[in-house]
Each structure stands twice: as structure tokens, then as C-alpha cells.
Design goal:
With about 450 residues, the chain is an alpha/beta fold. It is about 45% helix and about 15% strand. The chain has 2 domains: about 60-100 and about 340-440, Aspartate Aminotransferase, domain 1 (Alpha-Beta Complex), CATH 3.90.1150; about 120-320, Aspartate Aminotransferase, domain 2 (3-Layer(aba) Sandwich). The chain is globular and about 65 Å long. The structure holds 4'-deoxy-4'-aminopyridoxal-5'-phosphate. GO terms for molecular function: 8-amino-7-oxononanoate synthase activity; pyridoxal phosphate binding.
Length: about 450
């Protein structure tokens, strides 16, 4: 647990810190005293982990596929993108509301650079903050209906930092089996007893709570507003009910639901019409609907204040840059003044799902969200389909093991409100057509 050490270090004098580090060093020295094979770090090309990773790419290329990763997008990725000079209909970025690249959002970000520079260069706690930091946090709090919010510089690190800081070895954390890597990392770093329940199965969660809750101090349930691999939504009222009955905290990762769910895009809370105070930690990312980079936690005032003064990756890390803060702020204000973007997104996603189902494509559990998988099963066929679509002018990323479980390889389509109905019709027909060719 990084935070066991870090939390302790935060509260110690320099002299005490040195003593503690010395104690830890002696402890690990003892544990590592038996002889081991030396590994030469400088010869990284020979390291088994590197060779294994390289082999997978070489194998793909050997059977005639292009490396599907790190494609270079030449320009703004919205409903279309440009790769290798070719204009493609784009389904590979989470620009759900078309905010990234919107001239109004870009203009506000440019003005923030002129006013505040490109970096705040240090921790907000130490060197002070900018008015846009506080304005952004207030807008986020308003968006989800919480008392307050704080913004970290990354979405992934928001989960790792917050979970590992608030929970420790005396606690219980229960998360969905399909939780995002950042949630799992946060849980592991906390040192808490970690259990997972079958995807979206709140009854399975209840069984774990019945058995384990009483022997732990704090307990946390972590779920997502929309699951990023499948595009489905948890039954939030049931999870809230369990939170109350078993006196747990409830955290929701709204990376893919903020700006998407609910009539005005206020997320899963609005979608189900729940009381926002029934969720303890509203987490979200700024990188998707909100056209920026970073993550947030919204919740009650005391909790946010505590994190602002003590969460190591907030206290010891730089504040979000002025253009990023301004872009997210502008995106939220635009979302509020143009809620028709959310409606258009829902309509386009619905159309995609309907057409895909009419063509008997396997869209799995996807419902009411902007993430629509087309499950192929076989990894090679999935990569083949992605390449065939690329040649038809469609950019969609294949997802294969280990990103998803064996035999559930898929193409994952992120719908944007900027997609036209014609682009969606053309895409679904092309997918059905090319898949038939591959499987015949
Ligand atoms: N949570 C979920 C559910 C995600 O899908 C992602 C990334 N796509 C993150 C957190 C991390 O967000 P970011 O990419 O903004 O760091």
C-alpha cells in the first residue's frame, strides 16, 4: 500500500521520515537476503516481459495485419478523423458531445493560456490556485448535485489516489467484476480486503456484504455509471439500498456516463432520479464528454476538503493546467446551454443499436449508452474486421484478450452526437457486410 507509507509520511517531521525509511529498508533487506539471479536492467531487449509483448505484435504483422495500436490521427477526432491522409468515419474516441474541437471550447482554452499560461507549475495547496480551478470544481459539483468537488490531473490517477487514500487494511472493498483497471489498482493499493461480484449482480454483492461487512471497519462498493467494454448501466437504486442497509460508502465512476446519461447529461443520478447525497463519491473523468484531461471526485464538503489537504496525488502533484481547466469548464457550460447535444447523442446511439440488432450483430448488454460493442468472439476475425472497415473508410478499434475475456473479442463503437444518421447507417451496413465475408 503506497498510502500506508505515504499517509504516515505526510504527518511526520523530516527526522521521523528518515527514521521510518531506514526501518523499512532494514526490513526489506532482511527479506531479500537470500541469493537471487541478477537481472541486468540495461539489456531491456532481452527481458522476458518485453519479448512477450513484442512477440504479440510480430505475430500479428507476420500474418499480414497492421499494428492496430497507436494510429496517428492528423487533426481533431470527432465524427471523422484523418489517418494516413485518409478521412474516416471515427468511432475510436470518446468525444461523446463533440466538445473537443468545438470552436467555443477551444477559444476559452486559448484565452486561459493568454491569461494564466500553460501550466500552474506546482501543487495548488503550496503555490496557490487560479479562479478557474474553483469555478470548474463548483460547476462539476452542480452538475452531479454534490456539495463540492476537486479535480486531479488524470482520470486513472483519480481512482487510484482516492480509493487508496480513503481505505486501508481494516476495510472491505467490493467492486464489479468488470471494473476499470484504475478502480482495481486503487483497491489493491489500499490494502483493503477486496472482493468482486458478478457483473451488475447486486444480489451477489449482497451475499458478500452479508458475509464480510461485520468484520471490517469501513466498507466501499464501487460501480460504474456505464461500463466501458459493454455499454450497460447498473441498477443504481438497488446499490443505494445496499449502501444504506450495510452502512457502506458508494462510489460511482462516471467516466462514460457524465454528459451522456440523463435528459440533460447530468449522469446516472439524473437517469434514475436518485438523491445525489445517496452516493458518497461521484467520480468522473474530464477526458471524454468534457473535452479535457483530468478526473474529479464530487461529494460532501468535508470529504472534498479532507482530500484537498491530504490526498498525496493532489497535495504533491501539479494542479490541472489552465487550458485544460478552462476547456472542461467551457464544456460543462456548453452542455448546460445546449442540452440538445445529449438528446442527439441518445438518438444516434439508439439508431446504431437498432440497426445493428436488425442486422443480427451481437451488441451484448449495451443499452441507453454511447458505448456499443459488436462482439465477434474470435480475436483474429475481430482484427480482420477492423482492418476491412478501415479500407471502407471506418475507424473502429478491435478489443481482444486481455482487454476483454477470451472468446469475447469485439469492435467497440463510441457514438458521438456529431455522427450523422447517414454515417451510422453506412457503418452498420458495412460491418454486417464485412463480417459475413470474413465468416463465410
Ligand atoms: N474510469 C473508466 C471507467 C475509464 O474508462 C477510464 C479511461 N477510459 C478511466 C477511468 C481513466 O480516465 P482517463 O483516461 O481520463 O485517465
Amino acid at each position: 500500500m503506497t498510502t500506508n507509507i505515504e499517509q504516515t509520511l505526510t504527518n511526520l517531521s523530516s527526522q521521523q521520515k528518515l527514521q521510518l525509511i531506514e526501518q523499512l529498508r532494514r526490513k526489506t533487506e532482511k527479506a531479500n537476503s537470500s541469493p537471487v539471479d541478477l537481472v541486468d536492467f540495461s539489456n531491456f531487449t532481452e527481458r522476458p516481459v518485453y519479448k512477450k509483448m513484442k512477440q504479440q505484435i510480430i505475430q500479428l504483422e507476420a500474418i499480414g495485419f497492421k499494428n492496430p495500436y497507436f494510429k496517428i490521427n492528423q487533426g481533431i477526432a470527432k465524427n471523422t478523423t484523418k489517418i494516413d491522409g485518409q478521412e474516416l468515419i471515427n468511432y475510436s474516441s470518446y468525444n461523446y458531445l463533440g466538445m473537443s474541437g468545438d470552436p467555443k471550447v477551444s477559444q476559452v482554452a486559448k484565452e486561459a493560456i493568454d491569461h494564466y499560461g500553460t501550466s500552474v507549475s506546482a501543487s495548488r495547496l503550496i503555490s496557490g490556485e487560479k479562479p478557474i480551478h474553483l469555478e470548474l470544481e463548483q460547476e462539476i459539483a452542480n452538475l452531479v448535485g454534490a456539495e463540492d468537488a476537486l479535480v486531479y490531473v488524470g482520470g486513472h490517477s483519480t481512482n487510484v489516489a482516492t480509493i487508496s487514500h480513503l481505505f486501508d487494511k481494516n476495510d472491505l472493498i467490493v467492486c464489479d467484476l468488470l471494473s476499470h483497471n484504475s478502480i482495481i489498482q486503487g483497491c489493491l493499493h489500499s490494502g483493503a480486503s477486496l472482493f468482486s461480484f458478478a457483473h451488475n449482480d447486486w444480489q451477489a454483492l449482497e451475499k458478500i456484504l452479508q458475509e464480510k461487512r461485520a468484520s471490517h471497519q469501513q466498507a466501499l462498493i464501487v460501480i460504474e455509471g456505464v461500463y466501458s467494454m459493454d455499454g450497460d448501466i447498473p441498477n443504481l437504486p438497488q446499490f443505494i439500498e445496499l449502501r444504506k442497509r450495510y452502512k457502506t460508502a458508494l462510489m460511482i465512476d462516471e467516466a462514460h456516463s457524465i454528459g451522456v446519461l440523463g435528459k440533460s447529461g447530468h449522469g446516472i443520478g439524473e437517469y434514475f432520479g436518485v438523491n445525489p447525497t445517496d452516493v458518497d463519491l461521484w467520480m468522473g473523468t474530464l477526458s471524454k464528454s468534457l473535452a479535457s484531461c483530468g478526473g474529479y471526485i464530487a461529494g460532501n464538503k468535508a470529504l472534498v476538503e479532507y482530500l484537498k489537504y491530504t490526498a498525496p496525488s493532489f497535495v504533491y502533484s501539479v494542479g490541472i493546467s489552465p487550458p485544460n481547466a478552462a476547456a472542461a469548464l467551457a464544456a460543462i457550460r456548453l452542455l448546460n446551454s445546449e442540452p440538445e447535444r445529449v438528446e442527439r447523442l441518445a438518438q444516434r446511439a439508439k439508431l446504431f443499436l437498432k440497426l445493428a440488432q436488425e442486422h443480427e450483430l451481437n451488441t451484448g448488454l449495451s443499452q441507453d449508452s454511447a458505448v456499443i460493442p459488436v462482439i465477434i468472439g474470435n480475436s483474429l476475425q475481430c482484427i480482420q474486421l477492423s482492418e476491412a472497415l478501415f479500407h471502407r473508410g471506418i475507424n473502429v478499434q478491435p478489443l481482444i484478450y486481455p482487454a476483454v475475456s477470451e472468446n469475447t473479442a469485439r469492435l467497440r463503437f463510441f457514438i458521438s452526437c456529431t455522427h450523422s444518421e447517414e454515417q451510422i447507417q453506412f457503418t452498420v451496413e458495412a460491418v454486417a457486410d464485412e463480417l459475413k465475408k470474413i465468416q463465410s
